[in-house]
Amino acid sequence: MRKFGFYPKLAARSLRLNGKFYLPYLLSGMVSAAMLYDILFLNMNTGVSRLKGANAVQGLLGFGAIIVALFSFALICYTNGFLMKRRQKELGLYNILGMEKRHMARLLLWETVFAALLCILGGLLLGVLIWLLFTKLPRALTIPALPALLLFLYMSMVGAGALTVVMEWNR
Questions:
Q1: Residue 14 confidence (pLDDT)
Q2: Alpha-carbon gap, residue 21 to 16, rounded angstroms
C-alpha cells in the first residue's frame, strides 16, 4: 500500500529543520517576486497609460521586468546551489539508509513546491505592502516628494540586502 502523504510530510519537516539554510533562498525568492510584481503592476496600471510618453514608460517597465526576472533567476539559482551544498550530508545519509534516487528526487520536488509557494505568496504580500506604501502613504501625508524618497529607500534596502547576502556567502 502506497502512502501519498509521506514525501510532503518529510519535505515540510526538512524545510522546518533546515530553516537557517532555507532562509536566504526564501528571502531572495520573496524579494524577487515582490519586485517583479511591483514592476508589472506599474506597467499594467491605467494611470501610467494616461501619461505623456506612456509607450516609452511602459516599454522601459517591460524591459525592467525582464531584467529583474533574469537577475532573480540567477540569484535563486545561486542560493539553490548554496542550499544544496549545505545539504549534501543529509542527502548522503538518506542514500546510505536506502532511499533511492527517484525517492530523493520526489522529496526535493515537494520541498521545491513548498518553497515556491512560500516565495510566491510572501512575495505577493510584500509587493502589495510596498504598493500600498507607495500609493496610500504619500496621499495621507500629502508630501509631493515622498514617492521618490520611498523609491530611493526601497532600492537602497534591496541593494544593501543583496550586498549583505553576497558578502556573507563569500566569507
A1: 86
A2: 10
